[in-house]
Amino acid sequence: MHDSTSIQVRVWRGDAAGGDFADYEVPQQPSQTVLDVVTWIQRHADATLSYRFACRVGMCGSCAMMVNGVPRWTCRTHVNKVAQDNRLTLEPLRNLPVIKDLACDMTVFFDKWKAAEGHFSGSLTRDRPVAAISPRDRLRRAANAAIECINCAICYAACDVVSWQADYLGPAALNRAWSLQNDIRDTNRAARLQAVSANGGCMHCHSQQGCASYCPNELNPTASIAGLKRQAAGSFLKKKYPEHYA
Amino acid sequence: MLELRLYLAQRISAAIMAPLVLLHLGVMIYAIQGGLSAEEILARTRGSLLWGGVYGLFVLAVALHAAIGLRNIMSEWWSLRGPLLNAFSWIIGFGLLIMGWRAVAAVVGA
Ligand code: SF4
Ligand code: SF4
Ligand code: FES
């Protein structure tokens, strides 16, 4: 039996070979987060439960899971906002292989960041003065709009194209690439434009904003991807692909 | 770069189709007003380079647009890739082109 002071929690338990749901009853607390619930289960019900977290304050991006079918950052998700009838169903993030229980393997996700040339390439050494860039600059504002990503893979879990097309780079990697395409200090923009408009790149996006609706930092990867499409198409039509990227 | 080319071809074909659809609807409504029969319409289209060109171009745009769109769907829903995906795309594109151009030929041909 349960009453309103407890939460009925179904947690997916298993590994890459398969698994099933297990049921737990967790006492309700004021201001309780979904991550608090998972931690309670591990400390008081079953110490073998595997999950991942680090910062508990929405900075590190490691605690994302499917909560009642929706990808969420569990450390910043309050139970009373998402529980239905005092019930929670917790699963590992969609679109990524499971390692064990609620922890999934993020390797593909980060490999795609690399494939999208998601790293900054500068031309200055630490001995040179810092580049002076006005915060009001058009490109700098575009870079800023996409920059606050915590690599949580929530958008990646929300994206249907990722689930259909294993080689699609996905919203997070493309959003990151767009941020760097707008960084005038970056020296790798032609190669990056080529990387993100190749097969598996930005052209596959359906622009339906599943990623943007779930990004906990309210970023809009769809808009970033549209920017990449514009940039690639524009440079192709001007016959300056991929060198023309501004 | 194939993806980028297909992406652009699909957008450009859409941009061609949109005004031609409006033209088609407009002319249809206009032609019906006077109560034209099929005979009378055919008398006007037969041998017309203009209508042959307009509908010929429309069919070309449709064949391109639909083949690329269905290519994406086949790749996403059925995980088709490589030669099989290309083969299906060409069959759809050419099929539509031939059927469409046959219809155009029937309307403008003598
Ligand atoms: S808008 Fe694009 S990247 Fe975002 S969820 Fe949809 S298909 Fe994926
Ligand atoms: S774009 Fe948003 S949802 Fe996607 S990884 Fe970054 S912070 Fe997470
Ligand atoms: S634990 Fe760091 S974002 Fe949730």
Structural account:
- The complex is a heterodimer of chains A (246) and B (110).
- Chain A has 246 residues and is an alpha+beta fold.
- Chain A is built from ten helices and seven strands.
- Chain A has helices spanning 34-45, 79-82, 107-115, 138-145, 154-158, 160-164, 171-181, 189-196, 210-214, 221-237, and strands spanning 6-15, 18-27, 64-67, 70-73, 87-91, 98-100, 103-104.
- In chain A, strand 3 (64-67) and strand 4 (70-73) form a beta hairpin.
- Chain A starts with 5 loop residues before the first strand and ends in a 9-residue tail after the last helix.
- In chain A, 42% of the residues are buried.
- The mean pLDDT of chain A is 95.
- Chain B has helices at residues 2-33, 38-45, 49-78, 82-108.
- Chain B has 110 residues and is an all-alpha fold.
- The mean pLDDT of chain B is 93.
- Classes of the chains: A alpha+beta (246), B mainly alpha (110).
- Residues 61, 149-155, 171-172, 175, 215, 217, 219, 221 of chain A line the site of one iron/sulfur cluster.
List the helices and strands and how they pair.
The complex is a heterodimer of chains A (246) and B (110).
Chain A: E1 6-15, E2 18-27, H1 34-45, E3 64-67, E4 70-73, H2 79-82, E5 87-91, E6 98-100, E7 103-104, H3 107-115, H4 138-145, H5 154-158, H6 160-164, H7 171-181, H8 189-196, H9 210-214, H10 221-237
Helix pairs in contact in A: 3-7, 4-7, 7-8, 7-10
Chain B: H1 2-33, H2 38-45, H3 49-78, H4 82-108
The complex binds iron/sulfur cluster (2 copies) and FE2/S2 (inorganic) cluster.
The site of FE2/S2 (inorganic) cluster has 12 residues of chain A, from loops.
Main attributes of the structure:
heterodimer, A: 246 residues, alpha+beta, Ubiquitin-like (UB roll), two-stranded antiparallel sheet, B: 110 residues, mainly alpha, 3 helical TM bundles of succinate and fumarate reductases, elongated, binds FE2/S2 (inorganic) cluster
